[in-house]
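Dear all,

This email documents one entry for the complex benchmark we are building for the journal club exercise. For each entry we list the sequence lines for every component of the assembly. Then comes the predicted three-dimensional structure of the complex as a token string, followed by one or two observations. Please use this as the template for your own entries, and keep the labels exactly as they appear.
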Amino acid sequence: MIVNRSEAIIGRIVLVLVLILTLIPLANMASAALQPAGENPVGLTWPSDPQWGNFVEAFQTGHVVELMTSSAFIVLGVVPISLLFGTLAGYALGNLRVPGARFLLIFFLVGLTIPFEALMIPLYYEMQGFGLLNTQWAVILPLIGLYMPFSVVWMRAHFVNMPRELSEAARVDGATTLQEFRRIQIPLAVPPLSALAILLFLWTWNQFLLPVVLISDPLKRTVAGSLTYFQGQYSTSIPLLNAGALIIIAPAIIVFLIFQRQFIKALLQGAVKG
Amino acid sequence: MTTSNRSASSLVDASASALRATATDDSSAVARPSRRGAGGSKAWWAARRGWLFVIPALVAYIMFVVYPLFLGVQYSFYKWNGVGPAEFIGVANYLRVFTDPDLLASIGNAFILIAFFTIIPVSSGLMLATLIRSIKPGPFSSASQAILFLPQIIPLAAAGIAWSWMYAQTGAVNQILTLFGLGGITRPWLGDFQTALPAVGLIGSWVLTGLCTVLFLTGISKIDSALFEAARLDGAGWFREFISVTVPGVRQEIAVLTTITIIAALSSFDIIYTTTLGGPGRSTLVPGISIYRIGFTQSDVGLASAFGIVLMILVLACVLPIQRLSRERD
């Protein structure tokens, strides 16, 4: 690739500027979180006397353990089931080519563009009818349904590319559909499955609208949904609000930094497919 | 991932591949009668047993997406406060959506947000990707990718909290402005009728620019580098190369990013909820917040449902033409 020296230098400068712009709001949270809790901090200031105690206080008064447990419960309720259902249907639509597969796929595709906002009112009354309002199930069950179009389309895209000879060979060896699915197809589907798992985890963990609407007790929501509780709780103390918010978003950031490459890959593919 | 995943990139693309899949189904269907003659109803059942695999997904989807959608359509024709008796009022709720100044304002604001959620991130992401594509893969490059992605990892609600503090009277934005001698224009940006909507919009730009940049980077890296070299050898400058090689090469990425960012703009909720809740006045009111307020605070379930349906149609009306355009040019 031919690139002028000056272009390369401009590129680096611009990139560094953008990186700084991206980081400022987060650094600003950290700097505010370390100021004395009783004072109103001013802008981006170096914490000359860092108050690490703010994090301890926010951790204790913010019921962080309870919140994380609730979030983890919701994630565990949503992600494995969505993966299972999505894979089964994706396999049937992509590989088994069941009669009516085309109609079914279009039926699922329609669901991809429905904004959650359009469904929040009816979902509220549906959950009320089930007697599940204000429980974590009021978020878990709808999310499984709402993620289903994406999960099915995602997994189908994988299975539709698997060579048919593979299943034919399995059949010749006497494998049933279920055996072929478990022994041959699933092991080969691990990369798209793990990318889907990452996306579903992140979307569930960061889900805000449904928990806010369907669960009135903030301690039973996802961490994202509980941020409104922090805003109410710490409306008078900017340092504690920021400390609490940082604690809340830390787990996702840590997981992201560990599985950086997989996350970026999954998110890019997710964007392209969404 | 695989190439077909990329080709199944968008709604219409994927439905096109669905059509292709059926085409092969049909051809096998032609061959089926002869096979059925041999295998009898056993083969017929084998083909349909695949349905069992689809049923769980179908049930979840119908119960929590399709059924609520029908419920929403039904509610939208009634006047109902959520507890008492409901009264059928025809399309009156829809008429209110298009005449009530608050609701019209929220639709208008959503379209203004497209400038900040779509136009700014997509165009600056493309420029940035062009500028930094020359940076060699290495620790610096992967660290910057990770940083550009951070806003995607944190909840939008947290971005809202971080930025409401940035925009506060004593916040970093005013501090930086004063530093550059612009102390005269400092203000509480989210509390000002004039600046609240652009301020909220810029949060969206902050969240989405990184995603656009990284996606464009991967798009540009797929363009045959011979094209760039040919352009340079022909004496094309930076701009010419950008217009003639880069932009056509990332057409698909542009379509995809425009689609997802427009959906994000029209259905924004989290950021507004944690920053302004639609205020001051109705200056940052968006459809999501309006539906929430009407449905749960004012308990007008019919009107809120009608607005939800209108929002869904708006999103479809914006997204489908983009899909069609990007396909036609392929």
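Observations: The mean pLDDT of chain A is 87. Chain A has two domains: 5-59, 63-235+248-273.
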